[in-house]
Structure formats: C-alpha cells, structure tokens
C-alpha cells in the first residue's frame, strides 16, 4: 500500500512539474507575440488613428 501511495505522489509531483513547465513555455510564447505585436503597431500606429488622406 505504501508503494502505491508513493507512486501516486511521484505521479502528482511529476504532473505538476510538467504543467508548470508547460505554462512557462506558453507564457514565453505569449510574451514574444505581445512584443512582436507592440513593435508592429509602433511602426504603423500613426496611420490608424490619424487623419485619412482621402
């Protein structure tokens, strides 16, 4: 019985570690996308809210 509980504890800790690692990767990807979007908006942002030429 003790071995089963130990195995379950190891599986829970491993799953939690995997989830945290996956969340770090998701956060890193979202940060890169946010920075890329901020850089793209910074270049052409003046035309969006400025006067229209037509």
Automatic annotation (TrEMBL):
Top-rank lineage group of the source organism: Bacteria
Record key words, sorted: Membrane, Transmembrane, Transmembrane helix
Chain segments annotated as transmembrane: 25-42
The keyword Transmembrane appears for this protein: yes
Protein name per its UniProtKB record: Hydrophobic protein
Species name: Streptomyces triticiradicis
